[in-house]
């Protein structure tokens, strides 16, 4: 793990001051690994009437069929109360539901107990979300997708759309530029944070240009794997995982043979799968097992969650091969991160003397970013 020769490393909460609590979905069925299934679930909900529709919806204190809420920013879902809803399903969006598990969500405010609209307002192609994982070895996870993980707080890299204002302590980049002799970008600093953050979510900072460059390079390599933007990572030839025996239509059991470096889905086989990919855990939970369970664990009959693909889609196989590759490549970076040693730190006391800390209260609150109308409940317009 990265270390410092003192205990005055600044907290992440001061370096990236605006953070948001995790989303609270309230019900599982609006999220799924398959977008077609989500549209079928929506259709089944709207075909039901009265008490049947209510039971399928799974009401909570925060959301019922009578809840009146506005649209999620940037989304076109309806705003009529669900008891009277008739419109088509909102187009599902890609989200991160668990570490390294990309699924789909119906972006409809009426279906989500706590959707955190302030995050939706700044979710675009420029954004990077940093999520607390609770894992000692990798306490932070960065993603370009809106995270719906139920772990720690979420910190967007940018406070406004289009990447126009970094979510950083005001003056921090200027101070680092003076200490390092070159001005880092906001993405550089995020890369450093990913490489150097400690389990207690403090972040040692350095004024050694060589050490800074090494840490930023390590963090950017991590970002390329977790915030891919359409790029498909590849292992060198001979190490790339392939399907060696066809996967069954409905696999039930996942197991790993360490000697063969083979992943079995019932009688289906994928290899080579490095042990480091199979062993990859976040907060004590094996990533590959969680990913498989999200697609195969039985659902209660008669519920919307039970509406699923009739057979294992080819897209899931492609996603699994890519996930194995990402985990294997991330495992290669772990020793580099563990070997990162900060020898000359920019301390929290330094930042206080420079006036960077404490951060102003406004920096801990979302920016006012609305420059257009947002549709409120029952088709009315909301202003921010």
What's a concise summary of this model?
With 384 residues, the chain is α+β, with helices and mostly antiparallel strands.
Task: Write the SSE topology.
Blueprint: H1 12-15, E1 31-32, H2 35-47, H3 50-57, E2 93-98, E3 101-105, H4 117-121, E4 129-132, E5 140-143, E6 146-147, E7 154-156, H5 172-180, H6 186-196, E8 205-206, H7 209-226, E9 242-245, E10 254-257, E11 262-265, E12 268-271, H8 275-279, E13 281-282, E14 285-286, H9 287-296, H10 314-338, E15 345-346, H11 348-353, E16 374-375, E17 381-382
Parallel strand pairs: 2-6
Antiparallel strand pairs: 1-3, 2-3, 4-5, 4-7, 8-15, 9-12, 10-11, 11-12, 13-14, 16-17
Helix pairs in contact: 6-7, 7-10
Detailed description of the structure:
The chain has 384 residues and is an alpha+beta fold. The protein has a domain at 242-338. The chain is 30% helix and 14% strand. The protein has 11 helices and 17 strands. The chain has helices spanning 12-15, 35-47, 50-57, 117-121, 172-180, 186-196, 209-226, 275-279, 287-296, 314-338, 348-353; strands at 31-32, 93-98, 101-105, 129-132, 140-143, 146-147, 154-156, 205-206, 242-245, 254-257, 262-265, 268-271, 281-282, 285-286, 345-346, 374-375, 381-382. A 4-stranded mixed sheet has the order 1-3-2-6. A hairpin with a 2-residue loop joins strand 11 and strand 12. It is flat. The two termini are 43 Å apart. 37% of the residues are buried. Residues 1-5 have low confidence and may be disordered.
